[in-house]
Every structure is written in structure tokens, then in C-alpha cells.
Amino acid sequence: MADTPRAQVGIFGGSGFYSLLPDVREVKIETPYGPPSDKVALAEVGGRQVAFLPRHGRDHSLPPHRINYRANVWAMKSLGVTDILGPNACGSLQTHIKPGHLVICDQFVDRTSGREDTFYHGPITTHVSSADPYCPILREHAVGVCREQGVEVHERGTVVVIQGPRFSTKAESRWFMGQGWEVINMTQYPECYLARELEISYVNLSVITDYDAGLIGEEPGIKPVTNEQVLAVFTANMDKLRRVLFRMVEALPDTSGSPARNHLKSARFD
């Protein structure tokens, strides 16, 4: 239909990212997998149409293990989105990665359970590679924009994704630290992988809000993480993150040649 809304870029983030933009249009998307977390807000940024969707819902009513990740990613695809920017609040597993820093992850480790994490239940068997789960073109772009904006950035890192909503024990956290992983989060999986299944380029921007429990005592002042602390640090860095995201959209590179956009055919037995 002629009036079907379209967007090139999708951002999983709350209303803080688009509340200052003019001419925001909200649309309700139906998917085969049920409703997304909220209505999708469409707005123009740098001459491109962008779709904003709060993964936890506008009122943050959906905990990580209750998010309908398939519906969220499908909603983006149905709008024509080819590139997704996925900012989220994360904990640090290494003392050199500090609150306020951004990490552009290149790997994930899945420690979740029971989440619907594929679109492909047959009859065509589909094995999508996740050896390199994030789009290399968008990752390089994100690092460059962070440096341009004067934001402290780590250009790679492994995020371990836990089930939530509880935070890790010290023992769990020290186990993750001992593996050399850098970031801990509750929402990166299966969000990033589902985007890959639909051949959407995806980049993660991990906003470090706290040190994880295993680092307690490693440096003075490191205390057990609280939800209030996470919210306070994320809010304090909102303007910085908004600048990075909007600049990424304005200067978005062509990702049509990315392996993230062209791998599904080789993943199928048909």
C-alpha cells in the first residue's frame, strides 16, 4: 500500500532518543509473533527515516526475559529496516572498562534460557552462522563516530548475556571475568542474532553503567550494583549516546556488501 510507513534505520531505545524531534509518527505493528514491546516511533534524522522502538516498553514494564524479541525484530524488518543500532545498559567485567565508556562488541556468549531465539522452525532447515554476529561495517562506523564525538570507546569486546532479571552472584561474575569477557548484559541475545536471521545489519553499543559483582573490592568505591545506579548512570550519559546515534544515522555507510546482509542462502538446506 502507498501509505505503508518505511524506515531504513532501526534503533532499539526509549523515548529519550526521539522526544526532541519534530513530526514523530507513531505506528502500531502487527507481527506473526505477537505484539512488539510498544508502538514504533518514526522520525527523520539526517535525511533518513528512522524507526525507534523501546525494547522494554515505553514505561519499562517488560523485564529482559519477557521481551518479545522476535516481534521487535520482525517489526523492524516489516518497515524495511536494513540497519539496526542496538544501544543498551551494561555492566563491566574488567576494571579498565569504566562507567560512562562505550564498548562496541564483536562477540557474545549466550547464558539465557527458554527464550524464543529463531524464526526458522522448518520446514526448510536453516543454520545461520553467528561466528561474527555483529556487522563489521557498522562496528567500524560506530567506533569512528565515538572517537569523532570525543566519547571513550572500546572497539571490541565480548558480552555475556544472562537471563535476568536478577544480577549475577560474585561467583558467577568472577567466572565471566576469568574467561576474559568484558561486558555483561541481559538483552543482547537473542536480539542481535534474530536480526542476523533476517539479514539486517546490527551493531551493539554497550553503555557501561556499573562494575559487575565480581569486581567488588578490586578498586575503592566499587559496590554491589543497584537498579538505581544503572538508571542514574545511563540517564547521565543519554545526551552523549544520542549524539553518537544520530551522527551514526547521518553518516551511515552503505552496508549492502556486509556479510550480515548476504548470508541466508548459504545457511539453508533446500
UniProtKB/TrEMBL annotation:
InterPro entries: MTAP (IPR010044), Nucleoside_phosphorylase_d (IPR000845), Nucleoside_phosphorylase_sf (IPR035994), Purine_phosphorylase-2_CS (IPR018099). Phosphate binds at S15, R55, H56, T187. The keyword Nucleus does not apply. The record marks S168, N227 as: Important for substrate specificity. One of its GO terms (biological process) is purine ribonucleoside salvage. Purine nucleoside phosphorylase involved in purine salvage. Belongs to the PNP/MTAP phosphorylase family. MTAP subfamily. This is Purine nucleoside phosphorylase. It comes from uncultured Armatimonadetes bacterium.
